[in-house]
Write a structure and sequence with these properties.
Blueprint lengths: L7 E4 L9 H16 L3 E6 L9 H13 L5 E6 L4 H13 L3 E4 L3 H11 L22 H9 L5 E4 L1 H7 L4 E6 L5 E6 L8 E3 L7 H11 L4 E5 L3 H14 L5 E5 L19 H6 L4 H7 L4
Parallel strand pairs: 1-2, 2-3, 9-10
Antiparallel strand pairs: 4-5, 5-8, 6-7
Helix pairs in contact: 7-8
Length: 290
Amino acid sequence: MSGPATPVFRFAPSPNGRLHLGHAYSALLNADLAVRTIGRLLLRIEDIDPVRSRPELIEAILSDLAWLGLRFAAPVRRQSRHMETYRAKLGALAARGLAYPCFCSRSAIRARTATTSGSAAVDPDGTPLYPGTCRQMPEAERATRLAGGKPHGWRLDMARAVSAAPGAYAYRAFDPDFEERSVSADPVRWGDAMIGRRDGATSYHLAVVLDDAEQGVTHVVRGLDLEAATDLHVLLQRLFGLPSPRYHHHGLIRDANGEKLAKSRGSIALADLRAQGTSPAEIRARLGFS
Ligand code: GLU
């Protein structure tokens, strides 16, 4: 059991593909820091994507992590088992007027942002900022569409959200030597971010914030590709009255061409390296761990 002062780390893979060296780096760094702080290391399977998450991939992830020599404190959290909780929290934001249903398809948004502005403003992921079409929808029409079962996702009303949680936004960042600094956050650059998916599932942003709090995570260690998302997470934490963990966003492991590793780009899976005879010790050494 952990006391109130025990640091809690987590590795939180999405079972959308096999783990590659980038995942191994993140998992090993979390484990390393947990050992150095006599903390706990948790595993969370972020299986919120009903199409891409597959049970056999979850088994494969567990097997790869065990092969690497990583041990996690029980239980392993599976996000797909908590969809009702995420829905309830989303409903609470909607009831406060801070989230609204969005009936726009991706192609409709693309078409609209293409016609309304020459070079549309984009969020940190490069997605054009939502033009706010459904935010302006009259309440009666919204109610009719919802009652008619029209497919919809849910968006944060960013302007209302920041006025409901006023003040400057910041979080504590730490480096692997546990030097800390304050980083200012700008959630507004995400615009009316999607927090509930059209397929009924939660968004990554909502689930990660709720789960880090639920699991008592004190130290989030994840890739730099998620650094900008932290700005939005800090806002959600404030809206829900949750504590902010400390964050370390580590550099990404790149392939020989300098590209970020991704299954879609054919990056070599840990399972392939293992099949080729690479040992866990060699993986550790290759990633700079002793
Ligand atoms: N599930 C996310 C991923 O695999 C990581 C989420 C996080 O660490 O906050 O990219």
